[in-house]
From TrEMBL:
Family as reported in the entry's similarity comment: Belongs to the ATP-dependent AMP-binding enzyme family.
Native source species: Streptomyces benahoarensis
Swiss-Prot/TrEMBL keywords: Ligase
Gene3D superfamilies: N-terminal domain of ligase-like (3.40.50.12780)
Location of region: Disordered: 328-382
Protein name stated in the entry: ATP-dependent acyl-CoA ligase
Lineage: Bacteria, Bacillati, Actinomycetota, Actinomycetes, Kitasatosporales
């Protein structure tokens, strides 16, 4: 394997397939209530066939692919297929109107879009507004544009760079997510292979994930938390994914038990919905060992959740799509001066843009400056100042794609 492709998402999948083979990578709940299991080897083969399909549609490294679906196994086919041949995944909210989706497709300059059958009409109307969109494939369709038919017609022989084309490198883009930061249009958040893998390694390391761990995904796959933190941590640790069509408060704990999940991630709103519903026998028999809250939770709700569900609630600080993840016990971070601290324990804070220290910034100080020259997480160049935990911070930020000050100076 060349050094260019040695540390990419596709390479991580291939290595996992070689190591884990017939073990389950994806356990998915179908909309009809059944289950579908995909092994590591099968996932790698599906990704290869999808990659060849995308190449046959004219996509090359850097071209953009829109995926307009709810949570489904085909999302991973397209994501990992894009990772193998070099396309950039642009996932979209299945609740978008034709005009909203059309704006996204035109702005992102997507060449191909893949939609589930129930969203075919919406997607077709949106494609009219996107001059760069040349192909529409349908998941679950039965016509000439059926995704499964086109994918399964491709060979699953190992990817050959000479015959199939060179793959992407670690700093090539793999995904463009959209994060809403105000009343205006959502901002684009481009993520490289290195950024995805860095986020996954950070979470996997802090959770001490093992191959027998399984991440339960109930949040939408078009969002960063499901991609960067749940999916990538499973990929890099050799674990597996339990995928559901979506979140349902009444079924969440039961889904975790049925799909044999050990880890899960939730937003505050679903957490509150879980606390508001009636208690169930599944509340303490789900098998989870930790749940990640991807936004701030109050002390009262944290305590109530941990008491009711008998599972640790961990806090993930920062915007889901844009900031290097830092996990800490929600119980250990209740005081205001600790919020935003880039360390696992103890008080901390951040420096202001002019370098001035903010109150409580004693252990670790992260300054957000100019974007890195290439790769990593765009718009997040981090500098560490006078931190007792400097080695740990530098390791975490490096894994997330941030540059050190001297590296940024050399690049500039």
């Amino acid at each position: 394997m060349s050094t260019r492709t040695a540390d990419t998402v596709a390479a991580a999948l291939a290595q996992g397939a070689a190591r884990h083979g017939a073990e389950i990578f994806l356990a998915a709940e179908t909309p009809e209530g059944g289950q579908l299991s995909v092994s590591w080897a099968e996932m790698d083969a599906r990704a290869t066939r999808t990659a060849r399909l995308l190449r046959s549609l004219g996509l090359r490294i850097g071209d953009r692919l829109n995926v307009h679906t709810a949570n489904c196994p085909e999302f991973y086919d397209l994501w990992f297929g894009a990772a193998r041949m070099g396309a950039v995944l642009v996932p979209s909210d299945p609740l978008h109107t034709p005009d909203e989706l059309g704006y996204l497709l035109a702005r992102s300059r997507c060449h191909v879009t893949v939609a589930q059958a129930s969203l075919r009409d919406t997607t077709a109307r949106a494609c009219v507004q996107a001059p760069d969109c040349r192909h529409l494939l349908v998941i679950g369709g039965d016509g000439h544009d059926a995704f499964h038919t086109a994918r399964d017609a491709q060979s699953d022989a190992p990817w050959d760079p000479e015959r199939d084309g060179a793959g992407p490198g670690p700093h090539d883009l793999l995904g463009v997510l959209h994060a809403a930061s105000g009343p205006g249009p959502a901002e684009e958040v481009p993520l490289s292979h290195a950024a995805y893998l860095g986020a996954g390694r950070n979470i996997a390391g802090r959770l001490r994930m093992r191959p027998d761990d399984r991440q339960l995904i109930v949040l939408p796959l078009f969002r960063g938390n499901s991609q960067q933190y749940a999916s990538m941590s499973a990929l890099v640790s050799g674990g597996s994914i339990a995928l559901t069509p979506g979140f349902t408060a009444a079924r969440w704990a039961g889904q975790a038990a049925t799909l044999q999940a050990t880890l899960a991630g939730l937003l505050p709103a679903p957490l509150c919905m879980l606390l508001a519903r009636e208690e169930s026998v599944w509340d303490t028999s789900h098998g989870l060992r930790a749940v990640i809250a991807t936004q701030k939770m109050s002390e009262e709700r944290t305590t109530s959740f941990e008491k009711r569900f008998q599972v640790s609630l961990l806090q993930l600080y920062g915007m889901q799509e844009t900031v290097a993840p830092v996990l800490a016990s929600a119980q250990a971070r209740r005081r205001k001066r600790e919020r935003g601290a880039p360390t696992r324990r103890g008080p901390g804070g951040r420096t202001a843009p002019d370098g001035a220290r903010r109150p409580g910034a004693r252990l670790g100080h992260v300054r957000v400056g100019r974007p890195p020259a290439a790769g990593g997480i765009p718009g997040r160049s981090c500098e560490i100042r006078s931190a007792d935990s400097r080695a740990d911070l530098l390791s975490s930020l490096s894994a997330a794609g941030c540059r050190r000050p001297n590296e940024r100076a050399e690049a500039e």
